[in-house]
Design brief:
The chain is mostly helical. The chain has 10 helices and no strands.
């Protein structure tokens, strides 16, 4: 059985860095919160699992040597950056359309799910897969948590720990922001919240488009 004790200091540093990364406000966290508040717990969890799947994909690719591929095919990152920015602008447009809709008579119960769980999962997956910053974040995390020449078991422990942290954090956001008091507050300020969401998505897209990666 692999003894992780010699690698624990580096693993703990990398896990703490991942905690900071996942709780920091960004497109993924913003989408989970907005969806959970407006459409409920199931919708928020579906999107959260999509985000987590995207994160896991980048983690596995990075651990398999993605950084070497990036050095070889650096132009692909530019294409991904443009695609990610366009996707964020599209999300901003949809949020703005939602903000412009007239308020329906407010009911005491939550409105039915507006988007299928499959589409919400794919939305979360798309947000993370089209974000090139996620690639470089994982390259940094892998360099922190996986010393050169570390056994495969260390890689598995590192990625497994990150996925557990992501699962608890993203699902926690979905559960907390889907609570009834939060939803009632959303109904009172729906247009303001949707407008702010649109603005934040647009800002994230512009920042991604102009960022030097």
């Amino acid at each position: 059985m692999l003894d992780l004790t010699p690698f624990l200091p580096q693993l703990l540093v990398a896990w703490m860095a991942y905690v900071i990364a996942v709780v920091s406000p960004g497109p993924a966290v913003l989408a989970i919160i907005a969806t959970s508040v407006s459409q409920g717990r199931k919708a928020g969890l579906a999107l959260a699992f999509g985000v987590l799947s995207g994160s896991y994909t980048w983690a596995m690719l990075t651990a398999s040597g993605l950084s070497a591929l990036i050095r070889t095919y650096g132009q692909a990152i530019i294409v991904l950056k443009i695609a990610g920015a366009c996707y964020l602008f599209w999300l901003a447009y949809n949020a703005l359309r939602a903000a412009m809709k007239s308020d329906a008579p407010r009911a005491t119960r939550r409105v039915p799910l507006q988007t299928s769980l499959r589409k919400l999962y794919l939305k979360g997956l798309g947000i993370h897969l089209t974000n090139p910053k996620a690639i470089f974040a994982w390259i940094m995390l892998v360099s922190l948590g996986m010393p050169e020449g570390a056994p495969v078991g260390v890689t598995a422990a590192f990625i497994g720990g990150c996925m557990l942290i992501g699962l608890v954090t993203f699902c926690g956001f979905a559960i907390v922001f889907s609570l009834s008091p939060v939803h009632r507050a959303y109904l009172k300020s729906r247009r303001v919240i949707e407008s702010l969401t649109a603005g934040l998505f647009a800002f994230a897209g512009l920042k991604l488009l102009t960022a030097r990666l």
